[in-house]
Amino acid sequence: xxxxxxxxxxxxxxxxxxxxxxxxMSCAACASSVESILQYTKGVKSAAVNFATNTVQVEYDESTxxxxxxxxxxxxxxxxxxxxxxxxxxxxxxxxxxxxAVKKQTIGAGLLTLPVFILGMFFMxxxxxxxxxxxLSLPVLFFFGRNFYANAWxxxxxxxxxxxxxxALSTGIAFIFSVFNTVFPEFWYQQGxxxxxxxxxxxxxxxxxxxxxxxEERAKSSTGTALRKLMGLQPKTLTLIKAGKAQEIKVEEVxxxxxxxxxxxxxxxxxGKVLEGNSxxxxxxxxxxxxxxxxxxxxxxxxxxxNQKGSLEIEAEKVGASTLLSQIIQRVQEAQGSKxxxxxxxxxxxxxxxxxxxGISILTFAAxxxxxxxxxxxxxxxAAVSVLVIACPCALGLATPTAIMVGVGKGAxxxxxxxDAESLELAHRVDAVILDKTGTITEGKPTVVNYLSxxxxxxxxxxxxxxxxxxxxxxxxxxxxxSLESKSEHPLAEAVVKFLKEKNLxxxxxxxxxxxxxxxxxxxxxxxxxxxxxANLLKENRISxxxxxxxxxxxxxEAAQTVIxxxxxxxxxxxxGIQDQVKPSSKAAVTQLQKSGIEVYMLTGDNHQxxxxxxxxxxxxxxxxxxxxxxxxxxxxxxQAKGKTVAMVxxxxxxxEALAQADVxxxxxxxxxIAMDVAKITLITSDLEKIPQAFRLSHLTVNRIKQNLFxxxxxxxxxxxxxxxxxxxxxxxxxxxMIAGAAMAFSSVSVVLNSLRLKTxxx
Length: 763
Known about the structure:
It is built from 28 helices and 27 strands. It is of the alpha+beta class. The protein has 5 domains: 15-85, Alpha-Beta Plaits, CATH 3.30.70.100; 95-224 and 333-405 and 703-760, no CATH class; 235-323, Calcium-transporting ATPase, cytoplasmic transduction domain A (Distorted Sandwich); 416-443 and 583-686, Rossmann fold (3-Layer(aba) Sandwich); 447-579, 3-Layer(aba) Sandwich (Calcium-transporting ATPase, cytoplasmic domain N), CATH 3.40.1110.10. It has a 7-stranded mixed sheet with strand order 14-27-26-25-15-23-24, sandwiched between helices. Helix 8 packs parallel to helix 28 and helix 12 packs antiparallel against helix 14 (393-413). It is elongated, with a radius of gyration of 35 Å. The model is unreliable at 1-12 and 456-473 (pLDDT under 50).
């Protein structure tokens, strides 16, 4: 049921699109390198790296293989994890593996660095202490910190640089300078300079940066918890019924048409329908409703939902990646891997960040040597090393994707499925929302909301409403109506059938049945004719209509209800008012949107009378009735031409054109597949209050991105000049490389932790 290396593309057999876990990335500059290398690899159409998830989505033609892509990256020190396993599972494994490796590296380096730090800070003049520090520093730098140097060398061979380059240069220069001063101290004594050593600076930098990466890896893994919760809904095995025998198989082995046994308490493994049994199913992961739903023969069931007490036998209809749950997971993965527009600018900055920092470090060294003062060389070396250490491309690289990941995950937890980062970033700017009526504002399922009947008595006609359904006309009359509507193909007949069946009525055997186009149906029972349909059907058959029924029918029609008449060959017996009821959340959602300054419009293909009634009920002042799909799209264009950022909300095929045109497209989860494919945001429930929640989520996420970018830029803008020694002429302050390393580590972690604060915010 994984979505890992499933190939999808607009041109089957030609273009493939796959997501791969990437190994070896340590900063945003690495992500930029991986992206550029893959984009210039033969056969690759596009490549997008997500540093926060350590994945890359590649679109390539059939002449290229994943192995070829991996080979292109291996040369420069990176790699792709190629295989049949699920991407998220692989990423999780790689993150855990990397976390454990960095943890061991940090602990080992820390234990050896502690005595080096003590000797360097408190026994700096003790000669044996320098030799002890040299010996202890060797494994810290070249065993526990070997990855920094290995990766920097691979980058240098190809004319590239990343964060590892900065760490390798800074610690390497400090170590070599200290070794020289330990082995040849007389060189400096002859020039009247005291030979300082900086073993503690080099080793502490390795420890701090390793510790920072350890916290970063742990924090980054937390941003994917929402997706892992969704994946946790997928069972691994199921009970297959074959030839009357039950056998346990893996979920991957099931095929459509298989008969599956669902025991009490088990998760449904596939989408399908009930063949046998009755049970309540917890569908809260799809509907958001806490009350379990009763399922019986013919009822639909969905993967990931939980069976309660009864046993069910179901037929598999959609399996693997086709299930609703798998599609939700896939969309969340794609959204978390997509890039917000602001990220593209950040990527460009990250790509040139490291070379610029190296240049600043060289200029810093040169400036200190030009404006010679006391201990100029030592100060120049320390300042240059501090500049290399304090600069942090990671904070820039993590600022946007971590916020996007947490935002998308927060949306998924609240039944708001966000398909790409651009929509999440743009939604907070929406100032005009267009709502489709049927299935969006209303339930999309016509139901009988009113019932009125005549009760025949000698020489009188009495009218009763609603509760009269349990009185006369006789049970036989109502069973005749049920029988007529059961045979009718009219869309509203289903609502009448459902209403009457709830009264525990049964059908009768009609002597004859006739469907009358645009009018209704006619049937004979025990020599008498009965009719069900509109008023024209009764008029054409010269059937008497009691004035009370006629008056009530007019009132219901004005309230946007469709009136169904039931009559025998002499007079009308009853009327039913059918209406697509407004969702309980619609009015509250419209009010919230309007209070936040958003203009709300309603578009519908329904008649003006119905549109007026619905718009009035929910508080929408501006609406259009009897519109066709192209009219909806044009209405979106007209609003955009006025400078509006438009969100379109719909659920049907007829909404797909307008959804595609809108700046932010939102589909109702129970709607058509086409609407959900076109839309960038899907509301898994039918609750319209999720729309203002989605906008609030966008606002919170964008705020986090801005905060992250602000602090990342400010950190570097302030930190680099201080590390270069800008405060020295004023206050005599020169930043210690150890402090610079700690600050650099903290900056990355703080960005990730700030993004994780989104999890605690209420939508």
